[in-house]
Design a protein that fits this description.
The protein is of the alpha/beta class. The protein is 29% helix and 15% strand. A nine-stranded mixed beta sheet has the order 10-9-8-7-6-5-11-12-13. A four-stranded mixed beta sheet has the order 3-2-1-4. The protein is globular, with a radius of gyration of 22 Å. Bound molecules: iron/sulfur cluster (2 copies).
């Protein structure tokens, strides 16, 4: 199993190690040298020195092919993607932006097609998400396959399956770039109430403790809603106790279908002003893939979509143009004098409008703007 990835990345060339935060740029001439190595060639001396200095890896006297995977250049410029394996979840969180969570994912052969498409599009950092990705029956196989293709993997999870020894074993052998666990409360009553599942807090706590004990790279996403706002400090203290980074998420979005019900879970006093939107590379350097293998601009801008199973990566040639169209101000945002200081991108504004959400959730105006046809 590889410990080093040599890969092109958006015009540069990188050396990375799964599960390790540090990476380094190498010149193209060195990357070309690594690409030209045959199966029996030993690691070049310079590589042995670099991986030892950077990650304390001992590659001396070993065949390069046993230590490293060398990725091929792509004609596309993508470096990151998210792949939603399955919308199914073992929880039923009141604020969830996925709305109806159908338990549907691709059969294995089609998943392999999608993973190859992600690799061939140049994706180095891949986020696996759901639903709850770890309850997907093919999670372990999908994770391992993506890892073997030379991707650095982040998993977004509620952590409820992390105490499973088989799962922990796989993740410690094939280390993720990051495991990001959502936190829905600091007490059993609040956590189980928000997720609408008895035992959810217990499963999360066991999973977090087990993953921490195994030394996996963890981060916490503290989800703040009306139900758990009184436990914000305790949730932050949990991250501090474990010594792991955390970030707060308090701005609730409508569902991906434009459903407004979830907005009622927002804790009004925690609604934060979004940072000024200065453009986004969605669709140009990263994209999203849904459980059916459809690639789209991002998790919010899901239409139009491109089937990776039917079209493969050739279809992705259209994605940057689709994204440009979606990101341009339109509809109620056309000609807005405040767009320069607005924190809501166009796809998100469109979703809030579809949900007929109160302007305070996303817009600087206090009254709906009338737009000439
Ligand atoms: S929601 Fe908006 S800011 Fe976020 S990735 Fe999509 S286009 Fe970019
Ligand atoms: S301030 Fe409101 S109308 Fe103006 S660009 Fe932002 S969301 Fe659109």
């Amino acid at each position: 199993m590889h410990q080093v990835i040599a890969t092109p990345f958006q015009g540069s060339f990188l050396l990375l190690s799964p599960g390790k935060p540090q990476g380094l740029k190498i010149p193209q001439v060195k990357f070309d040298q690594l690409s030209a190595l045959s199966a029996d060639d030993p690691c070049p001396e310079w590589l042995t020195g670099v991986v030892h200095r950077t990650w304390k890896l001992d590659a001396s006297g070993r065949k390069a092919a046993d230590v490293m995977i060398v990725r091929s250049p792509s004609f596309l410029n993508y470096g990151r993607a998210s792949y939603e394996l399955n919308l199914g979840c073992n929880y039923d969180c009141k604020h969830c932006y996925l709305g109806v969570k159908e338990f549907e994912g691709l059969p294995w052969n089609d998943r392999v097609e999608v993973l190859h498409a992600l690799r061939d599009a140049g994706v180095v950092w891949l986020q696996l998400t759901g639903g709850e990705p770890m309850i997907d029956k093919q999670f372990a196989a999908t994770y391992s396959y993506a890892f073997a293709l030379g991707m650095m993997i982040e998993v977004l999870t509620n952590g409820s399956r992390l105490f499973n020894p088989v799962m922990l074993d796989m993740l410690t052998q094939r280390r993720p770039h990051k495991l990001t666990l959502s936190v829905y409360g600091a007490t059993e009553e609040t956590y189980d109430g928000l997720t609408q599942r008895r035992g959810a807090h217990k499963a999360f706590s066991r999973g977090l403790a087990a993953a921490h004990e195994a030394g996996l790279p963890l981060e916490l996403s503290i989800i703040i809603t009306k139900d758990n706002a009184h436990e914000v400090d305790a949730m932050r203290a949990l991250a501090e106790r474990y010594g792991i980074p955390s970030a707060d998420f308090a701005n609730i979005s409508p569902t991906i279908y434009g459903g407004a019900d979830v907005l009622a879970t927002q804790s009004p006093e925690h609604l934060t002003k979004r940072a000024q939107f200065n453009g986004c590379d969605a669709g140009s350097t990263f994209f999203h893939v849904d459980p059916h293998g459809n690639a789209s601009t991002c998790k919010v801008a899901r239409d139009p979509k491109i089937s990776l199973v039917e079209e493969g990566i050739q279809g992705l040639r259209r994605l940057a143009g689709i994204a440009d169209g979606l990101l341009a101000r339109q509809g109620g945002c056309t000609g807005c004098q405040l767009s320069g200081t607005c924190g809501t991108c166009m796809p998100l504004a469109s979703l809030f409008r579809k949900a007929k959400a109160p302007l305070a959730n996303y817009c600087q105006h206090t009254e709906e703007r009338k737009v000439a046809n």
